[in-house]
Amino acid sequence: MDFQLNDEQRLFRDTLRAFVDKEIVPVAREWEQSGRYPTEIVEGMKQLGLFGLAVPEEFGGLGADTVSFALAFEEISRGWMGIAGILGSHSVSCFMLARHGTEEQKARYLPDLATGTRRTGIALTEPGAGTDLQGIRTTARRDGDSYVVDGTKMWITNARHADPLPVLVKTDPSASPAHKGMSILLIEADSPGFEVTQDIGKLGYKGTESCEVVLTDVRVPESQLLGGVEGRGLQQALSSLETGRINIAARSVGIAQRAYDESLNYARERTAFGQAIGEFQAVQLRLAEIAIRLQSARLMTYWAASRMDDGVRMDTESGMAKIFASEQALACATDAMRIHGGYGYSTEFEVERLYRDAPLMSIGEGTNDVLRGVVAKALLGGKATIR
């Protein structure tokens, strides 16, 4: 049993850490508060090849192992979680295309996606359907050698930059069960009738856009059907969300790490009653709790990632890591705010952003309550074992 990163992973982490400390940490608070899009940071991520994390090497990507994939999201989220969102949706989509796309689709899109020349996301959620994806209403009606798509998607990260945007649709709305009539279409941004109608205001998760996308009689060639076969869209999406949950778990670890870093420094530097507040037992207990939660979340996230690298089905493991790490991130952010006292509530300090960013981690890529049900069913059905 080895709890250490290998040399390649350690070098990758150190390179990312240096990039985050130089390019993200100094500007994150100012840019987040002003609503400025992080164009320069995106360009830096392109130069590091990070848009190719989930793209196989044969198409010009990094073909990163899943532990390295997690390291990327942990380090970037330590600097600014919203930036990780730009890379997260793109990577989930690339993974899905690499795993399920036709050879023609992969050859057409993956090389440019690997460099960030093209960017992408994934359009699953709708105004009336989030975790319950079988309840979507967006339809794709066959018309000759094309599909005609109508519907609305919500909370779509990278919507203003995605080209193509994979969109989950119902190609057979009458199918029972519903998932047998669901497919994914790769819709290009310049398609007539494809419109990004608004950016949705958010408590946190700033730096990347979250948008409403309206599709009105959008004509999509049949060659854009992911995998070339109808009725596999939900399975294609869900298999890709396994990596998405590793991504969210790792982002949570990054938030918790920053909460720890800020709290430790503040406890050493802030004085009260003639001594550093780190000398008070109440502060010590909170700081220790943050450290314990952080390291526990990190180990569970790396465990789930390593299981995926072993080539086993790991929907249970990724769900467990996502649930646990996301809840530790919120607990760590809350304790960090308490250690900072009134300053923790001030926009002049980093911890208030952590407190706003952390709650999303328990919602994104499947809510924690729903995922608990998924884990329990796997255990009861014998598909997963804990021993």
TrEMBL record:
Residues 231-380 form the Acyl-CoA dehydrogenase/oxidase C-terminal domain. InterPro entries: Acyl-CoA_DH_CS, Acyl-CoA_Oxase/DH_mid-dom, Acyl-CoA_Oxase/DH_mid-dom_sf, AcylCo_DH-like_C, AcylCo_DH/oxidase_C, AcylCoA_DH/ox_N, AcylCoA_DH/ox_N_sf, AcylCoA_DH/oxidase_NM_dom_sf. Its cofactor is FAD. Residues 122-218 form the Acyl-CoA oxidase/dehydrogenase middle domain. Keywords: FAD, Flavoprotein, Oxidoreductase. Residues 6-116 form the Acyl-CoA dehydrogenase/oxidase N-terminal domain. Belongs to the acyl-CoA dehydrogenase family. This is Acyl-CoA dehydrogenase family protein.
